[in-house]
Amino acid sequence: MFNSDTISRFQQLETPFYYYDINLLKQTLKACYDASSKYNFHVHYAMKANFNPKVLEAVQSFGFGADSVSGNEVKAAIENGFAHDKVVFAGVGKSDKEINYALDTEIFCFNVESVQELTIINELAKAKGKTARVAIRINPNVDAKTHHFITTGLEENKFGVDTWQLPNVVEALNACTNLEFIGIHFHIGSQITDMEVFKNLCEKVNVLDKWFEEQGFDIKVLNVGGGLGVDYYNPDTNSIPDFEAYFKVFADNLTVKAGQEVHFELGRALVAQCATLISRVLYVKNGLKKNFLILDAGMTELIRPMLYQAYHQIDNISKGLDHGPSTMDHGLEMTKYDVVGPICESTDCFRKDVVLPESFRGDLVAIRTAGAYGEVMVSNYNLRDRVQSVYPE
Ligand code: LLP
Fold this sequence. Notes:
2 domains; Lyase, Ornithine Decarboxylase, Chain A, domain 1; alpha/beta; binds ligand LLP
């Protein structure tokens, strides 16, 4: 995937860095735009996946809205060109300061996660003489069948209001004079690859929409969240998710009434493939039981493998061959390595037993599909330097 000119350029640069393929990003955004427009679906980009300004610039250029989860994300959305009336603000723990900022910014909607939060937003809006648009995040108790650390729609999760509490929501909404109740919101988890899960979600949404109608509410927005997964195993052949199939599930299974809008909050599916973490081999440590490839990137630059046992393809690109298996055809000697970082933690391991061509100090290693929840989750633990971002010339 990298040509020899690009690899030569990388060799001149200080590592580690995230390399952004802006072209692939735009192709992915276009595929999502085309597939969603077919049904008139609205997409808000979940900026938590990656708020790199170049990424935000590309996303907003397609007319998508922004799904933000902090006051600073709301601010970054506005500063990077998203229209204020296309910004939603979600999250279980919005502070008064953040709510006030979002009210001043006149965002499209707050996705509210509890009855108490409804009353607080109402009070703060009243103090400003404003009306806040709100959607209620409901916990639909749908199993996302993904890693349990990134499941959010089960009753044991902290997110949203459980369905048994909805009568209290109705009571609060009727009492809150400075709220405009516009929608119901769901997000059941991330990296979901089984479309049946989204079908199950649609069934719950239909039932709950009907329930609210029976309580006398007119729901304008059905927000079904994000969660579409990507193929971490085949980054070259399958780099753009099947947005057609994804949106079709909702088009086929959601009951959408006249005047209702369907909103999505996709993060990972839009940006995962567009970035690669490029790192250098610092040391090769051969042991009796294990060989270690010690990189200059670690859990401080990409924490997903350590936090969620997430798989990322790893290639030694200095060999001029960046596809693991194909190197066998070129007669290179293959070795098994535990690919680890420099951080003083045993969990600082990208993957164990990775088969790579024999590798040496100074070789460049690419850790693929790192565009979502990669650069945004960096830390300076061990007082590390901030990882750099690099773009095509
Ligand atoms: N909407 C809400 C309310 C969310 O909580 C999330 C993600 C999204 C939308 C976007 O979901 P996506 O389309 O990206 O799946 N750091 C983890 C993933 C955490 C997801 C958090 N919420 C990882 O690296 O796998």
